[in-house]
Design a protein that fits this description.
about 450 residues; mainly alpha; Proton glutamate symport protein; two-stranded antiparallel ribbon; globular; binds aspartic acid
Length: about 450
């Protein structure tokens, strides 16, 4: 009997629990929104003390716990990337393989992003979401300085690796870790000892990932409750065409374009990839950050999909930083939308410019919430569209940010699978085993 009971609790995978946490968070958030009504808050006295619902729950408990959850994920990113990348590169028998891995990964990341933005532009021209709209906005958008592309490449090389780690500069950490790993593989006996130590540290860090992942259903719950208690869904209605178009192209990219690319370049069954991505996509959706999701994306690539560490430790962190197909989709649609609202005709050259800039821009900006809008400023400037146009879409960007982050991480894993397959570094048994790497509570 006891056995049967524990069996049935084991049926709930972590993914299911996170999903339940998410739905419960959305419902609770909405209930709070309804409760607080137009005024956006309710004050009452509890044992003689003035209590505000917003202050206590939304800005207090939900917001505080949500921030702690995101910080716990982010805390793992730098040590995890550095240590697993050193393990991955130091175990490469042939360092020239590294160049091939890098070339394939970067090439595929650029290709998928270019396809994403081109699809977005085509769909936006077809549906014309901004045609005939007369929008005004009170919101101001002040563009941050867009990164200069030459500087982006120069900045990949760290002058002080400790500073790079302290700032969480992913590309610099990758460059240093790869160099360190290659040096370890060339260092004979000393290298073997260092490599063994790094492998042990990696195991320990992965245990911290497991602990944090087990808290995810609660973390996701508070993040969603806070968001849906405060989000203004009415702004979505005003921009419904834009919102649903971006949303639709994101879904299309994940469910149609990725499967076609995966199948044609690697022969792998895309349904398996999509099903195994659910957990990671939920994390990405709730945190809106490819970077914060990185520990989970790496776990999925390695343990669920069977991408061996030599590839996953390199390709996944690189993707979290430079591969943002979802973001590029938003930029493609937003550019056409803003041009239509302002009545500007864009030429074919302009569109090619948009594709090029959006693709390159995604290399230079980190996977953190809302960064897509900063990149959009860069794209708009390239084709002489008013950057203030961003203020038109900012109101609906939060939900789209969540959705595009889920697409971004799915793209990272898809490319990792293709690269791994082509290098003979994909464990096919793990890929085909639907139960591989599934986390269940054993309580
Ligand atoms: N939040 C996205 C990511 O982390 C970037 C963005 O589109 O703003 O991948």
């Amino acid at each position: 009997m006891t056995e049967q009971l524990s069996d049935s609790t084991q049926k709930y995978s972590l993914t299911a629990k996170i999903f339940i946490g998410m739905i419960a968070g959305v419902i609770v958030g909405f209930l709070f929104k309804l409760l607080m009504g137009e005024a956006g808050d309710i004050q009452f006295a509890l044992f003689g003390i003035d209590v505000s619902i917003k202050g206590l729950f939304i800005d207090g408990i939900f917001s505080g716990l949500g921030q702690i959850f995101i910080a716990s994920l982010k805390m793992l990113v730098v040590p995890l990337v550095f240590v697993s990348l050193v393990c991955g590169t130091s175990s490469l028998s042939d360092p020239s393989k590294l160049g091939r891995l890098g070339g394939k990964s970067v090439g595929l990341y650029i290709m998928t992003t270019a396809i994403a933005v081109a699809t977005a532009i085509a769909m936006a021209l077809l549906i014309a979401p901004g045609e005939g709209l007369n929008l005004t906005t009170d919101t101001q958008f002040v563009a941050k300085e867009a990164p200069n592309l030459v500087q982006v490449f120069v900045d990949m090389f760290p002058s002080n690796p400790i500073a790079s780690m302290a700032q969480g500069n992913m590309l610099q950490i990758i460059v240093f870790a790869v160099l360190f790993g290659v040096a370890v593989s060339l260092a004979g006996d000393a290298g073997k000892r260092v490599s063994a130590a790094f492998n042990d540290i990696n195991t320990v860090i992965m245990n911290i990932v497991t602990i944090v992942m087990n808290l995810a259903p609660y973390g996701v719950f508070v993040l969603m409750a806070k968001l849906f208690a405060t989000i203004g869904l009415d702004t979505i209605l005003g921009l419904a065409k834009y919102f649903f178009l971006v949303f639709g192209v994101l879904v299309m990219h994940a469910l149609i374009t990725y499967p076609i690319i995966l199948k044609s370049l690697s022969g792998l069954n895309p349904i398996i990839l999509l099903r195994k991505m659910r957990n990671t996509a939920l994390f990405a959706f709730s945190t809106s950050s490819s970077n914060a999701t990185l520990p989970i994306t790496m776990d999925t690539a390695k343990n669920r999909l069977g991408v061996k560490p030599t590839v996953s430790s390199f390709t996944i962190p690189l993707g979290a930083t430079i591969n943002m197909d979802g973001t590029a989709i938003m930029q493609g649609v937003a550019t056409v939308f803003i041009a239509q609202v302002y009545g500007v005709d864009l030429s074919v050259t302009d569109f090619l410019m948009v594709i090029l800039t959006a693709t390159l821009a995604s290399i230079g900006t980190a996977g953190v919430p809302g960064v897509g809008l900063i990149m959009l400023a860069m794209v708009l400037q390239q084709v002489n569209l008013p950057v203030e146009g961003i203020a038109l879409i900012i109101g609906v960007d939060r939900l789209l940010d969540m959705t595009r982050t889920a697409v971004n991480v799915t793209g990272d894993c898809m490319v990792a699978c293709i690269v791994a397959k082509s290098e003979g570094e994909l464990d096919m048994d793990t890929y085909h085993d639907m139960e591989a790497g599934v986390r269940r509570d054993v309580d």
